[in-house]
Amino acid sequence: MDGAAPDPGRARTAAQFTELLRQLRAWSGMSYRQLARKAKDAGHVLPHNTLAAALQRDSLPREELLIAFVAACGLPGDQITRWVYTRKDLATLPASDQLRRPGAPPMDAAPQAPARLQRIPPPERATFADATQSRSRAVPGGPSRRRLLATSGADGTVCVWDMVTNTLTAAIDDHAQWAETPLFSPDGRHLATRGIFEEAVRLWDTATMKPAGVLRGHTGDIVWAVFNRDDGTLATSSLDGTARLWDVSTAKPTATYACPARDGSAPLFTTDGRLITVDHSDSRVWMRDPAAGKTFAVFDAMVPHITVSQTGADAFPSVVVRELDGTVRTWDVPPVSAGQPVTVNRNVTFTGPLGRNRSVTLGWNGEVVAIWGGDEAGQAVDTAVWLGDTVSGRPLLPLAGHQGMVRDVVFSPRGDLIATCGDKTARLWRVDHAKRSF
What we know:
Elements: H1 14-28, H2 32-41, H3 48-56, H4 63-72, H5 77-91, E1 115-116, E2 125-129, E3 137-139, E4 142-144, E5 148-152, E6 157-162, E7 167-173, E8 183-184, E9 190-193, E10 201-205, E11 210-215, E12 222-227, E13 234-238, E14 242-247, E15 252-258, E16 266-269, E17 275-280, E18 284-289, E19 294-300, E20 305-309, E21 318-322, E22 327-332, E23 345-351, E24 359-363, E25 368-372, E26 386-389, E27 406-411, E28 417-422, E29 425-430
Antiparallel strand pairs: 1-29, 2-5, 3-4, 5-6, 6-7, 8-9, 9-10, 10-11, 12-13, 13-14, 14-15, 16-17, 17-18, 18-19, 20-21, 21-22, 22-23, 24-25, 25-26, 27-28, 28-29
Helix pairs in contact: 2-3, 2-4, 4-5
């Protein structure tokens, strides 16, 4: 392997693309049979005779063959992504337009569902950086937007995956114990990670995956974190009895508020950017304006599990409660003005599966609810994800395929993918959102 690998961004036609592939094989110094064995070792299927036939033609190869071949040549994940983007870009243009191709990779690439990501390290939590979140990144040949999925697990590692190629692009091994759910900033520039029993949040530059700062100041374990979708402010709450706002560009706190809940308050940003906190007991939920130091809403509910969502109905953030009898309730939180009365409207009530030890989340502006997790002690573990349509109140087809208990479910902001974590795998599910089918 002498010099740099061929650059796919130079291709303006399918014939030029396959010529660059032939140059890439020569650069690798491997025969077709050696490449086939290399691909097999990496878990790909790449018959040597199929590869030889594909490189003799002037048409675009199949995407799965391209990924297996480029990976076998020894290129890293970001360069594999570049080859895939270039192929997709050429495939979308008529032959008469290919020579005028500007070189910008497409924005809407996505894997088939369910796609299965690599098993190491075992993922337990996940989050998306999607086209609505990710910033444009300058790469040779033109700007692009990557679709990323970050997973975390019990070994403390946070992995970042490219969802076009299902390849691992970065692994962050910076937490001593279980890594909690990672968070992408709304502009896609930063990834925030934290571990269980940790009092700080670590920031990473998604362009380089190098450290970008550490948010220090809490004196107790951080139990919740969320980004403001409007300005990228990060809110954290801790067992030290405080919630803090952080400027991620400087890694400095901008405000500290008292939160009386003993197990940490859930922070939530209203549509006007104001921070509120949500607390609950076994039978009651209450919301506070920490800046004013006042509780503005209280409602009764038998609450084994509560979550907050920044993307509820009508773009309002929501509080989501799943009660012991399986009833799911959501409350929309309107803008909060200091000292002014606030009406929190109950938006949806319908019945989901029974069981105490289940989690719940909302997706896509509150239109879909997902419920997953274990059941009561001694009963069988549910390996599927239950989905409900909050518009019609009817259940949707479950997501079935995991061999063990599902531990996390996240919806892509773009609305075409769901990621599930469990049985040491993360799975991507393509969604026909208009038809509510998966």
